[in-house]
Amino acid sequence: MFLLVLSTTLSFISVHSSFLGKQVLKWINRPSEKENKLTTEKSKLKLEQDQLNMTDNFAKYSKIQRRINIIDKELLEYRNEKSNITLQLSLTYGLKFVLGICLAALSIYYRYSPVLKVHSSVDLTPFNHLISYPNESNQVSFHFWVLCCSSIARLIKF
């Protein structure tokens, strides 16, 4: 039972590691308190600017626009500091690599341990050797189970 749950979980996680990496990146790159403060200040200035007529109050309108531009530059600087391409690539491909190594190591370690034992009344005749290799017949091997779970996980889209 342990092998069944472990192999299924690792297979699904390795296939959908890019989705998990994106979620972690969203959490890491969430807006800081200062960014939230600047964003709310910008929205207040925009509302104030929308209430003004540009032709009648051009000086006040342009003064507000200059403050908005300064806030935009600050926000752009904060976002550029956070968007680290190395972190994005290492999370996406690093997770795939680590899980791939884990699955390969587990496949080697548990190659003689069946994940499932099929009842003898079920006949898997044409594919019995492929499914059970290197175990006895009517047993599902670890690497075959990982292959099946990975194939099914690719069909499921998040």
UniProtKB/TrEMBL annotation:
It is found in: Endoplasmic reticulum membrane. PANTHER family: GUIDED ENTRY OF TAIL-ANCHORED PROTEINS FACTOR 1 (PTHR42650:SF1), TAIL-ANCHORED PROTEIN INSERTION RECEPTOR WRB (PTHR42650). The lineage of its organism: Eukaryota, Metazoa, Ecdysozoa, Arthropoda, Hexapoda. This is Guided entry of tail-anchored proteins factor 1. It comes from the Eukaryota. Residues 1-17 form the signal peptide. InterPro entries: Get1 (IPR028945), Helix_hairpin_bin_sf (IPR029012). Belongs to the WRB/GET1 family. Keywords: Endoplasmic reticulum, Membrane, Signal, Transmembrane, Transmembrane helix. It is a multi-pass membrane protein. It comes from Molorchus minor.
